[in-house]
Amino acid sequence: MNNTQRTESDGMQRSPDHLPHLVLLSEVDLPDVLALERSCFEKIWSLEQLRSSFCRGSLILLGAKNPERLLGYVAFQIVESDMELLNVAVLPAWRSQGLGRDLVRAALKFGLEQGVKACFLEAAADNIPALSLYRGLGFTTTGIRRNYFQEQGRNLDAVMMSKELRIAPEHHAPYLESEEK
Predict the structure, then answer these.
(1) Taking a C-beta distance cutoff of 8 angstroms, is the pair 46, 35 a contact?
(2) 151-174 pLDDT, tens digit each
(3) Statement: residue 85 has pLDDT above 80
(4) What does the alpha-carbon distance between residue 86 and residue 77 come to, in Å, rounded to a whole number?
(5) What is the reported pLDDT for 39?
(6) Can you give the residue ranges of every domain in the chain?
(7) SS (H, E, C) the chain
(8) For the domain bounded by 18-164, which CATH number is listed?
(9) pLDDT at 5
(10) What's the angle, vertex CA 109, arms to CA 165 and CA 67, rounded to 5?
């Protein structure tokens, strides 16, 4: 029996011990978060901004790691019963394999466990993969912010989205209700 997985995006063989596991990231992971941001985004946080927000407790980071590196992360904040997704980033070689979905689902579950009732986010209107991911997880569009993002010298609208979080009646542990399967 073969204990490897071939991925569609890069064709690499990965053994089960090299598949990602999700963890709460710590301050020592911040340089890896910054490196991942550099590979995914035009505008990134500085290490000082990340460290300041993280150490104040206003930034929570969940990461997908294998033994070699950080493969993806989701950044969010919780204020009272609201949660805001700030960033989701996945290394290009690991995209389209469900890792972003797993990260967002883990963040939502974490929020539920902390008493969060609703999650909010903004996504660039031209970021079709992100919008599809969020809609697939049950987020709905609540509005548009005109010219909210500036990327590559152009202004992009932001799609504002939200999702009510609640424990499904048939589950005793936090479970994301109304998620597309």
Answers:
(1) no
(2) 778 899 999 999 999 876 655 544
(3) yes
(4) 7
(5) 86
(6) 18-164
(7) CCCCEECCCCCCEECHHHCCEEEECCHHHHHHHHHHHHHHCCCCCCHHHHHHHHHHCCCEEEEEECCCCEEEEEEEEEECCEEEEEEEEECHHHCCCCHHHHHHHHHHHHHHHCCCCEEEEEEECCCHHHHHHHHHCCCEEEEEEEEEEEECCEEEEEEEEEEECCCCCCCCCCCCCCCCC
(8) 3.40.630.30
(9) 37
(10) 155
For tokens 């999700």, the residue is 22
Residue 18: pLDDT band with limits 50, 70, 90: low
How far, in Å, CA of 178 to CA of 168, rounded? 9
Beta carbons within 10 angstroms of residue 98's beta carbon: 12
pTM of the entire predicted model: 0.81
Q: In this structure, what token pair is assigned to residue 171? A: 């589950």
